[in-house]
Structures are given as structure tokens and as C-alpha cells.
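Budget justification aside, the reviewers requested a transparent look at the raw inputs and outputs of the sequence design task funded under Objective 1. We therefore reproduce one unedited record. The lines immediately below are the C-alpha cells for a 252-residue chain.
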């Protein structure tokens, strides 16, 4: 596949993890169309090949469950490609489903590595570029990061940890001109959601948030005027699933 044309270093620069998924994929394409220089992090080589064929996107495969690799990659990116970073969007995540009592050591390790440790290490490594641009860090969290969710103990724990990290990072980096925002979306129509066996019977795409809607919210945060700091943003389906399907049961 032919490589797309790449934006110059004078363009606003964004780095997006999870760019092979629904939200991340929508975000990198939206930013690229708007003239941003986009660095996309993916898990699969096929996704990197596809994105590298799009103008203004440069895609890299990176194992986010390997902290040493993440730290080294961030260091090399600053050395070779980026001195200013206007947007760092942490979209990548894993979403295991199952009872708390059945969670294994391996499941805990992988989930925390991808959902918490990788964003923290990547952010720390790229802070010099974020400070230089007075950029924005956006963490895509979850409603599970605000409360417990049955069948999602490991996922919810990782998202609560991510919330604590983001809130603390905001306190520490505001004086350096870096904005830190967290989005808490409800169920999004993505591949990850298809694995969720706890959804109400009959729930489908029309009940979920569209990936593009989350991507647009991230762009809005990045474009916020310099006088504001949007700290936390809840995105919910137009009608909550629990209420909708309770109403349907009552109507039978």
C-alpha cells in the first residue's frame, strides 16, 4: 500500500493510542482530515499498514503491555520525531469480563499494564513535548471508572486507578501549561463491547454511543480555548440501557 502524504513539523501534532480500534481509528482520521500531524499507535501490523496509507498519519506498532518497550519507544520518539506534542490521547484499553473471584494473576497483570501502566509511562516519557506545546492529555476512561460494575471487577479497578493517575497528573502539570482531561463514556459500539456478556438481552448498536461521537469529544477538548481547563466529561447514551430495558420489560 502506498504511503500517504505526511504533515510537516509545523502542523499541530497528536499521538493516539488504540488507533486500530473504533474510537482511536475515528480520532486519527478526523485529526488527519483537519490537517494535524498524527502519530498512531496500534497493536496489529495490518492496522499500521492501513493507517500509513492515509495522508498525515504515521502509524507504529507497539506492545502496550511491555513497560520497558513503551518507555524506550517514547524516548526515541522525542529524540527522532517530536519536540512538541499538542494532544496525547490515551484510547487503547482491554476490557475483560468475569466475576472478581475468577480473576487470575495473568488477567490482572495484562489489564493493569495496558490500561494504567502504559498510559502513565507514555505520558511521563512525552511530558517534555507536551510542556513545550502546552498540550492536552486526554484519557478515555469509562463509566466503570466512576463506580463498580458487576462482572467487571478487573476492568473497573484499572479504570479507577487511571482516574487517580489523571487527577494527580492534572494537579502536578497545570503549572507547566499542560491540560489533563478525562472522558467517561458509557457503552460504545466497538469490538470490545461485543465481548461484554453482561449487556441486556437484545441490546444493539442503536443503544450504544458511536465511536465518532467520542472522537469528536476528544477533538473538542484539544480545541478548547486557552482560558479553560475541561477536567472531566461524562458521555452517556441518549437513554441509559438499564432504564430502557427495564421499561421494555415492564411494558410486556
Amino acid at each position: 500500500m502506498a504511503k500517504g502524504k505526511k504533515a510537516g513539523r509545523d502542523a499541530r501534532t497528536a499521538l493516539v493510542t488504540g488507533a486500530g480500534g473504533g474510537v482511536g481509528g475515528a480520532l486519527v482520521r478526523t485529526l488527519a482530515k483537519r490537517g494535524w500531524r498524527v502519530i498512531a499507535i496500534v497493536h496489529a501490523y495490518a492496522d499500521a499498514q492501513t493507517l500509513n496509507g492515509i495522508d498525515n498519519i504515521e502509524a507504529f506498532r507497539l506492545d502496550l503491555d511491555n513497560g520497558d518497550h513503551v518507555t524506550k519507544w517514547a524516548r526515541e520518539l522525542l529524540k527522532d520525531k517530536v519536540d512538541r506534542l499538542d494532544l496525547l490521547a490515551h484510547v487503547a484499553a482491554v476490557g475483560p469480563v468475569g466475576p472478581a473471584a475468577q480473576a487470575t494473576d495473568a488477567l490482572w497483570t495484562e489489564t493493569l499494564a495496558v490500561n494504567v501502566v502504559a498510559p502513565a509511562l507514555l505520558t511521563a516519557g512525552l511530558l517534555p513535548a507536551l510542556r513545550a506545546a502546552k498540550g492536552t492529555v486526554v484519557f478515555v476512561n469509562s463509566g466503570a471508572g466512576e463506580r463498580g460494575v458487576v462482572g467487571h471487577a478487573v476492568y473497573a479497578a484499572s479504570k479507577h486507578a487511571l482516574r487517580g493517575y489523571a487527577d494527580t497528573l492534572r494537579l502536578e502539570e497545570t503549572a507547566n501549561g499542560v491540560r489533563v482531561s478525562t472522558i467517561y463514556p458509557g457503552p460504545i459500539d466497538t469490538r470490545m463491547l461485543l465481548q461484554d456478556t453482561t449487556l441486556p438481552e437484545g441490546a444493539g448498536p442503536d443503544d450504544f454511543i458511536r465511536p465518532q461521537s467520542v472522537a469528536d469529544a476528544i477533538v473538542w477538548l484539544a480545541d478548547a480555548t486557552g482560558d479553560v481547563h475541561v477536567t472531566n466529561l461524562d458521555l452517556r447514551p441518549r437513554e441509559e440501557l438499564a432504564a430502557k430495558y427495564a421499561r421494555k420489560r415492564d411494558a410486556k
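The two ends are 53 Å apart (CA to CA). The mean pLDDT is 90. Computational costs for records of this kind are itemized in the attached budget.
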